[in-house]
């Protein structure tokens, strides 16, 4: 009886362990998916921003300093 109890306990333990490992992997996948979506949205916002207007080329900046 002692051997069967130990064996059954081990099986239950490994089933519980497997359950929690699968649950954790699913959570990690959903978190990474959410993070990718957030990064994509952030990049889209940043690419569409022009806070200082059009950035001048170096040659245009040099021309502006020579005229003054």
From TrEMBL:
<feature type="transmembrane region" description="Helical">
    <location>
        <begin position="6"/>
        <end position="21"/>
    </location>
</feature>
<keyword id="KW-0472">Membrane</keyword>
<keyword id="KW-0812">Transmembrane</keyword>
<protein>
    <submittedName>
        <fullName>Uncharacterized protein</fullName>
    </submittedName>
</protein>
<dbReference type="Pfam" id="PF19767">
    <property type="entry name" value="DUF6254"/>
</dbReference>
<dbReference type="InterPro" id="IPR046221">
    <property type="entry name" value="DUF6254"/>
</dbReference>
<keyword id="KW-1133">Transmembrane helix</keyword>
């Amino acid at each position: 009886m002692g051997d069967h109890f130990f064996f059954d306990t081990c099986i239950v333990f490994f089933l519980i362990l497997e359950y929690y490992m699968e649950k954790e992997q699913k959570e990690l996948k959903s978190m990474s998916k959410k993070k990718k979506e957030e990064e994509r949205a952030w990049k889209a916002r940043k690419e569409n921003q022009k806070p200082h207007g059009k950035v001048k080329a170096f040659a245009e900046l040099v021309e502006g300093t020579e005229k003054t």
